[in-house]
Design the sequence.
């Protein structure tokens, strides 16, 4: 385990060949956001200037990915904690640069991780309309209000990659159904406030 | 005329509870036996009689009009008035039933919910965020479909707010 970590940090030294700090910053962001499966193509794309060969590029990209994800996973927020991850003999300036970049991005990355975590299909939008039914085949004159509710639902982000599927569901609620639903929603609200006030 | 009122009672009981077909049939055959009529012709008569309230419901007839209809069909005044009275008494229930039968598209039939806290995930060791999950049961044609969705807390409050607005709107039209 320790040997693997050493090798990873060694791979990071390739960043010393980077043309600019911004290039390093850019690469860090791309490595964090990419899923493990996307690292291969990323290595090919991003590293012609940085690495001697494809193998070195892959190791670099993988090391950056693991480092950034490790920090986000453990919720490290202090510079000291991040600096402590690096081995003793690691290049000082590079270590400081990487720590700085990570700290800058940590809360955005955390939000990104939360947004892409697995979940049930998510509600994205809702619209409603109230209609009055005036007649039907069973009764020719009436004035019954009814509610049409349209929910836009996005399937699990993790399954759809970059093009999430949003489906639309329209449903009809009678007044009684709406009252019952509101009762249920009210109970949820009460329970939420009870939890919040504890 | 006591027979007539008994028969009318049976008829209206069926009309107000249309699902109780077996009970209706039993009561009809009891009536036939008690009054020494054969069931077959009785059923035919009842079929014709039932056409009147159903048509009346569709056309929103008043009890006066129902009475007039029956007299035109040859019923005695006394019996027609009695029937019309029964009609008046039962029409709110019958109207409600007819409205209930009116077409509804993707009717929301049931809602279940649970909420909890996300403790951790494969990307984040400690999360601590609240999620709300709703299960909506929708009637699509003759089948039920379950729809599961997840809402964040702000979405929940906004959903609740919108539903309260819908309720106000529905109430202003009732």
Sequence:
């Amino acid at each position: 385990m320790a040997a693997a970590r050493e090798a990873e940090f060694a791979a990071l030294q390739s960043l010393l060949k980077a043309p600019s700090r911004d290039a390093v910053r850019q690469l860090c962001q791309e490595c964090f956001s990419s899923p493990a499966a996307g690292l291969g193509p990323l290595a090919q794309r991003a590293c012609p200037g940085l690495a001697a060969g494809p193998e070195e590029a892959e190791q670099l990209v993988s090391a950056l990915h693991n480092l950034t994800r490790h920090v986000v996973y453990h919720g490290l927020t202090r510079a000291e904690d991040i600096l402590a991850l690096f081995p003793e003999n690691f290049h000082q300036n590079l270590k400081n640069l990487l720590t700085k970049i990570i700290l800058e991005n940590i809360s955005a990355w955390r939000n990104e991780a939360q947004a892409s975590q697995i979940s049930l299909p998510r509600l994205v939008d809702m619209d409603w309309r109230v209609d009055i039914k005036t007649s039907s085949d069973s009764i020719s004159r009436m004035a019954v209000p009814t509610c049409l509710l349209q929910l836009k639902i996005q399937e699990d982000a993790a399954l759809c990659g970059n093009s999430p599927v949003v489906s639309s569901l329209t449903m009809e609620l009678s007044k009684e159904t709406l009252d019952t639903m509101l009762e249920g929603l009210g109970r949820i609200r009460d329970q939420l406030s009870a939890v919040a006030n504890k | 005329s006591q027979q007539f009122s008994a028969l009318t009672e049976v008829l209206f009981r069926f009309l107000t509870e249309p699902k109780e077909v077996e009970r209706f049939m039993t009561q009809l055959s009891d009536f036939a036996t008690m009054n020494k009529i054969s069931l077959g012709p009785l059923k035919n008569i009842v079929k014709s009689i039932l056409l009147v309230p159903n048509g009346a419901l569709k056309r929103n007839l008043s009890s006066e009009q129902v009475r007039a209809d029956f007299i035109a069909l040859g019923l005695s005044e006394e019996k027609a008035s009695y029937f019309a009275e029964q009609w008046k008494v039962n029409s709110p229930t019958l109207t409600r039933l007819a409205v209930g039968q009116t077409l509804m598209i993707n009717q929301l039939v049931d809602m279940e919910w649970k909420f909890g806290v996300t403790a951790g995930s494969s990307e984040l060791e400690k999360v601590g965020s609240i999620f709300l999950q709703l299960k909506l049961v929708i009637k699509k044609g003759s089948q039920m479909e379950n729809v599961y969705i997840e809402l964040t807390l702000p979405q929940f409050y906004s959903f609740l707010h919108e539903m309260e607005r819908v309720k106000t709107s529905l109430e202003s039209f009732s």
Observations:
- The longest strand of chain B covers residues 107-118.
- The mean pLDDT of chain B is 84.
- Helices of chain B lie at 2-16, 21-34, 39-58, 63-72, 77-100, 153-173.
